[in-house]
Amino acid sequence: xxxxxxxxxxxxxxxxxxxxxxxxxxxxxxxxxxxxxxxxxxxxxxxxxxxxxxxxxxxxxxxxxxxxxxxxxxxxxxxxxxxxxxxxxxxxxxxxxxxxxxxxxxxxxxxxxxxxxxxxxxxxxxxxxxxxxxxxxxxxxxxxxxxxxxxxxxxxxxxxxxxxxxxxxxxxxxxxxxxxxxxxxxxxxxxxxxxxxxxxxxxxxxxxxxxxxxxxxxxxxxxxxxxxxxxxxxxxxxxxxxxxxxxxxxxxxxxxxxxxxxxxxxxxxxxxxxxxxxxx
Amino acid sequence: xxxxxxxxxxxxxxxxxxxxxxxxxxxxxxxxxxxxxxxxxxxxxxxxxxxxxxxxxxxxxxxxxxxxxxxxxxxxxxxxxxxxxxxxxxxxxxxxxxxxxxxxxxxxxxxxxxxxxxxxxxxxxxxxxxxxxxxxxxxxxxxxxxxxxxxxxxxxxxxxxxxxxxxxxxxxxxxxxxxxxxxxxxxxxxxxxxxxxxxxxxxxxxxxxxxxxxxxxxxxxxxxxxxxxxxxxxxxxxxxxxxxxxxxxxxxxxxxxxxxxxxxxxxxxxxxxxxxxxxxxxxxxxxxxxxxxxxxxxxxxxxxxxxxxxxxxxxxxxxxxxxxxxxxxxxxxxxxxxxxxxxxxxxxxxxxxxxxxxxxxxxxxxxxxxxxxxxxxxxxxxxxxxxxxxxxxxxxxxxxxxxxxxxxxxxxxxxxxxxxxxxxxxxxxxxxxxxxxxxxxxxxxxxxxxxxxxxxxxxxxxxxxxxxxxx
Lengths: 280, 471
Ligand code: HEM
Description:
The complex is a heterodimer of chains A (280) and B (471). Chain A has 280 residues and is mainly alpha-helical. Chain A contains eight helices and no strands. Chain A folds into two domains: 121 residues; 154 residues, no CATH class. Chain B is of the alpha+beta class. Chain B has four domains: 92 residues, no CATH class; 105 residues, TATA-Binding Protein, CATH 3.30.310; 38 residues; 184 residues, no CATH class. Chain B is elongated. Chain B starts with a helix and ends with a helix. Protoporphyrin IX containing FE sits at the interface of chains B and A.
């Protein structure tokens, strides 16, 4: 068994676990809940082993680096963070119904990583600029932040879904947490993401300073991460001082995630810049 | 507080003037204007507005390439747009006057807003929460009432009962006795730390701009320089010492990908070597506040030939391709007569070598490989290396540690602002009446209300269980 196979399997287990969660929601079968959670936990474990194995393999190839340094690996880690964070929230807040909205995001990330033609999956050595521990810190912190924003968006979607649904077929959304709890959860995951994104931007700046002598050069990727950061700062202010919550917060969570996706993928695909992920 | 009063003189003016009588003195009009400006800059609406402006205008610089020449904008966007860009400083928008104006507005907003609100926050932090009446407690958002038998109440050690939430302060007053557990009052400062940290980062960045420089230099191996060239306008910047590039090497992976760029740098003060070190990307050299970063390189059609006759010191020669060199004292003649490579990079070179009147010998040497050649019964250790220039980014930024300090403060402040909260739980025991004691349990928190409500409910249930009464 090598890491590529394990990570390949993960893609399909996340698909299956997404389907389980959707099934759970549509047919309102509480009994399946445990199965879905258990299955997702196993999928996460498989992916964790896959990531560790990839790390070990890089040492066996004489390259020796953390599996966090190109587009493929960042997507895999993104999916990993989403599911890990999701399972934590499920456990901590004893709510299972976020799954149908959050786990598919992990599946999409894995599927995009595995099947997009432009993404190189091989373990290649690092160019000099990427040989830095700050890079590892930067990627890890940014993607924990991104994963939190992904879940906030999933919760936002769920919130909108639930308010729209309440009028007619209430039965289908009884599994979803009550609206005030959802609202609180959106706020909490956003805060969590905001802090990690802050640390991510800071570690990125430190890395840039040790490699090039400027901690901030307004390159498109940096600028977009700052725009995203501002967006969430504005959202938190609007909620705290102007009482924007409920539907508005849900919509902002979705818009914020759009900004995250643009920072992560759009900048590479549409704009030019220093960051190497786009090239791979 | 006094300073804050000084900073808001109209507050005093307002107190001392009667608004019903028109004030004949111009200072009042001036104060009024000041006050209006203060209110404007203290508002959170303005904060949201300026953050939106900065975020939205930042997008421009990610779409329009930055720092190109006017001709390039002309070619790409046409005359009208290029002129428009020129007028609005779009090609360098992040250092344009209007972008700085937006940042300044944000900074003033932060300062004014903080000064405006700090006194209230400080009062809440310093407030004596034990000085409170049962009526005020009864009006709290979380409150429960119990009436229990006096002998039962007497058996309970309330201090210990509240222990899981913290150490309780005690007071007796006219209404009975009062226990208070108060946690995290200073967490109210978290928001101020966050806002302060942003100002600290601005200050650090400003110091870097004013007192630092960013430059670069292309330094051929074996050469030295005492100046570099500014990134912005290529103006020479004296270093105050000399830096010498001893060597520059590139290391490759088996696949041919670059593994490492390495320069050996020596710092010289008045001709004396004071420091020698290798730098690679991500590991710069710092001397007297100036940092040298490995940033690029340039290969030349020249070679460094290093010859060490057996038993004596080596000598370095730099020579162009296909040109003969002479080492008089040793009677040596040599040159690089051929080279093979990929692109600009020489992989191996062919050496022509003659000792005295002996037969000339030729030999292929891999780049930077040392071989021993024998001629006229003597051994010579010879190495040939293509000549490179190392491209150094050179920067001095005296503000960088302030920026890092600000970042640390930001993260710490965010942690305090979001994860700690000011929680108070009161337990008031009323005076004994008809053999019963009226108990009020009240609580308030400034954040994370849902979790607090749960804790509060648990506490209320504990009291019910201990006393056998429903609240
Ligand atoms: C990038 C800039 C800024 C960041 C990162 C930031 C961050 C924060 C954070 C984390 C909070 C706490 C919110 C909460 O508890 O939910 C907050 C609150 C607040 N911010 Fe900002 N802020 C920024 C700019 C500003 C500016 C320019 C103002 C100017 C008026 C401002 C005014 C406030 C106010 C009034 C509060 C509420 C404080 C309170 O009453 O407790 N912020 N900010």
